[in-house]
Design brief:
The complex is a heterodimer of chains A (344) and B (346). Chain A is α/β, with parallel strands linked by helices and 344 residues long. Chain A has 13 helices and eight strands. Chain B contains twelve helices and twelve strands. The longest helix of chain B has 20 residues. The relative contact order of chain B is 0.16. The chains are: A alpha/beta (344), B alpha+beta (346). Chains A and B meet through strand 2, helix 2, helix 9 and helix 12 of A and strand 11 and strand 12 of B.
Chain lengths: 344, 346
């Protein structure tokens, strides 16, 4: 078990010694669940830290904010950022390291083990509780959660019934990159990590078109999927109406020549374009933290797209995303001895 | 007038409304969304509130303003594209969402009336549904001059009495709707009116969340405009557009030309929703951005709703529906932020 008090004292120690600028963890949100990202600056902040199955958010997304913040400052504080990561989140850090978006010394990584259960899916839990408000969820040994309702009633629920989709197909439930780990490192055998995709693969092309058309037609282009993604860190994104690479020095001609790739209108064609571009840019990079699907306000099952890309990377290149920071990034590397002609 | 409609007759009432395009909340995966009714059925008792308010019908995310072609000797070939004359009725509107539209009415009226908005708004009849139980754990309408039984902005208000609906018509448009199928409606009795009053009292007790001392917020917000408070509160913001796009009162838009890649050149001038939480919302073509960070954007959202709008229209630009709280990916809670604003420097 992760001992919360030990976790707190480690973070207090690191903050107290001034080793990090601030520490990102989790606090209880006003709504109870899921837990909210929590930025700790002082040791007394750490008292509000929590660690339980509601800590589903992937905090590595905030490393992008920090990098951009530093770039804006004239004399930035160059100390590392402390961050709590789960297994899947740690894989995102590996990808960011592979892509040299961050340096290893930029982060002080406190890994936590999910200990053979995982994180709670808020919607599945709500359905299971039949509308009864939930105040707290705790780990309760292997494959079980203890749920405390808002009225104080406690129930035990088998984890499998309310587990987030990402956790059902989890590849590694302890951090693969970290400075210190809390909780046991348990070898995991996920079985078929791509089981969910089979549902889509079994569809005919026409059925698949109908399925995705219905899904993408719901999209309101709030870009929450892009905003929550640790891999969507580009300064310049084809879907934005304005190019953020524009500076005071950019000439009028250059600005005028920028191509508008996509309309702001939430039309079928534009929504497809947006989601396809995102999926393609995540191929070999997405670690299936599942955040895009979790935050979608209109329930678009985005994991199917990214999972398919992850599966292609595995089947075609035997590449496991985010497992080894020493490997070159899949989509930006090639080998002379590669058997495929198209690659040379 | 006050009438009684049995739930059995409800679908039959909808069927009588063939002169209207009828919208109602339809269940999708884990949420509800207003859609055109294909087959008349009753309102699902499990219905809470739709993910997007009726704003999406009155002020659609995409509105074609006009179409244009190439220049000819006679000038530019322009065709205005006002919404079609089509009566619309929207069922299941929650009181907070109807009240939100009355705020937006003020924005799109006044000296420069927006014909696109006005036309859709005038063509719509809103049939409300009182909230016997708060649709969300984050409901806080009572803090912002609202109520789970508020009639503001509605044409008809239905209150669920179990087997029947208590029906109040609140405008001429509402009366027309009831008169279209008057045979289904019976006169209400005193007893039923009493029951509605009791339900309202009970419903108000069930709303637990509140913004404290809301009246002092505009002044407080002015005081802390330059405070580092906004930096701390916005740390976890991921700059997505959920809070504002789902908000029933947010009404900012962008105007773009959508041009076809064909000869002769033709295109459409289109208005789409825009969002103050997106970094490009205030980006100048020079590269300068007057709201360069998350702090200034969160501040804008809060200040607009609880300060600027109050100054201009003497009402809050927030009706306490709780959508921005429940759907925020990182748990930013407008009630918590506002209560902290009030306590700030105290």
């Amino acid at each position: 078990m992760v001992n919360l008090e030990e976790l707190k004292s480690e973070i207090k120690r690191v903050l107290g010694e001034g080793k990090v600028k601030y520490f990102i963890g989790y606090r209880r949100s006003t709504g109870g669940l899921p837990a909210a990202p929590f930025f700790m600056k002082e040791t007394e902040d750490v008292e509000r830290l929590i660690w339980d199955p509601t800590c589903i958010a992937n905090l590595t997304r905030f490393l992008d904010d920090e990098k951009k913040r530093k770039a804006r400052q004239k004399e930035p504080d160059t100390r590392p950022i402390g961050i709590i990561v789960k297994g899947c989140d740690s894989r995102a850090i590996n990808v960011l390291l592979q892509e040299e978006f961050i340096k290893r010394e930029d982060v002080y990584i406190v890994g936590v083990s999910c200990e053979h259960s995982g994180m709670v899916d808020e919607k599945k839990l709500a359905a299971k509780m039949k509308g009864k408000a939930v105040a707290q969820v705790d780990f309760a040994g292997k494959d079980n959660f203890a749920v405390t309702a808002a009225d104080g009633e406690k129930t035990g629920i088998p984890a499998a019934e309310v587990l987030a989709g990402r956790c059902v197909e989890c590849k590694v439930d302890y951090p693969v990159v970290r400075d210190v780990t809390f909780g046991e490192e348990l070898a995991r055998s996920p079985g078929n990590a791509f089981k969910s995709v089979e549902k889509i693969e079994a569809m005919s092309v026409a059925e698949r078109w109908d399925f995705w058309k219905e899904q993408f037609d719901k999209c309101i282009r709030c870009y929450a999927c892009r905003s929550v993604c640790p891999m969507c860190y580009c300064d310049e994104c084809v879907v934005d109406t304005i190019n953020f690479a524009v500076t005071a020095q950019t000439g009028a001609k250059e600005k005028a020549q920028k191509i508008k790739w996509i309309e702001k209108s939430p039309a079928t064609s534009e929504n497809f374009f947006y989601h396809m571009v995102r999926a393609m840019h995540l191929a070999g990079r997405c670690v299936d933290c599942g955040e895009c699907e979790r935050v979608c306000p209109v329930d678009i099952p985005l994991r199917f797209l990214n999972k398919k890309m992850e599966k292609e990377a595995k089947e075609l290149f035997d590449y496991d995303v985010g497992m080894n920071p020493e490997l070159p990034s899949l989509v930006s590397s090639f080998r002379d001895e590669d058997a495929e002609d198209f690659i040379r | 007038m006050e009438k009684i409609l049995t739930k059995q007759s409800f679908p039959e009432w909808i069927e009588k409304l063939s002169a209207y395009k009828v919208y109602a909340p339809i269940k999708k995966e884990d949420h509800w969304d207003y859609e055109v009714v294909e087959k008349a059925v009753g309102l699902d008792p499990a219905y809470g509130n739709a993910v997007l308010s009726p704003k999406k019908i009155i002020f659609p995310q995409r509105e074609v303003l006009f179409e244009f072609g190439s220049q000819t000797k006679e000038g530019f070939d322009l065709k205005e594209n006002l919404p079609e004359d089509e009566a619309v009725v929207i069922f299941g509107v929650r009181p907070c969402d109807a009240k939100a539209l009355t705020g937006t009415d003020k924005v799109f009226s006044g000296d420069f009336e927006d014909p696109y908005y006005r036309k859709r708004r005038d063509a719509a009849t809103l049939v409300g549904l009182s909230c016997n139980t708060p649709p969300s754990k984050n409901c806080f309408c009572l803090s912002v001059d609202g109520s789970p039984f508020s009639k503001t902005g509605l044409d008809v208000l239905l209150t669920d009495l179990g087997e029947t609906y208590f029906v109040e018509t609140l405008s001429d448009k509402g009366e027309q709707l009831v008169n279209a199928a008057s045979a289904f409606f019976s006169d209400s009795k005193k007893k039923e009116k009493k029951e509605v009053e009791k339900l309202q009292i009970d419903a108000e007790k069930k709303i637990v969340r509140q913004v404290k001392d809301v009246k002092s917020l505009p002044g407080k917000l002015k005081e802390i405009f330059d405070s580092s408070f906004w930096d701390d509160e916005s740390l976890s913001c991921i700059r997505c557009g959920i809070c504002t796009y789902l908000c029933p009162t947010c009404h900012c838009f962008d105007i773009c030309d959508e041009v076809t890649c064909e000869y002769p050149l033709a295109g459409k001038r289109v208005r789409t929703w825009d969002n103050c939480q997106f970094p490009d919302f205030t980006m100048h073509s020079s590269g300068h951005n007057p709201r360069p960070d998350k702090a200034s954007r969160l501040r804008q959202r809060i200040q607009h709703k609880y300060n600027y709008f109050v100054e201009r229209y003497d009402e809050y630009q927030c009706t306490g529906c709780g959508r921005c709280i429940g759907k925020c990916p990182v748990g930013i809670d407008i009630i918590e932020v506002l209560n902290k604003v009030n306590e700030h420097g105290a």
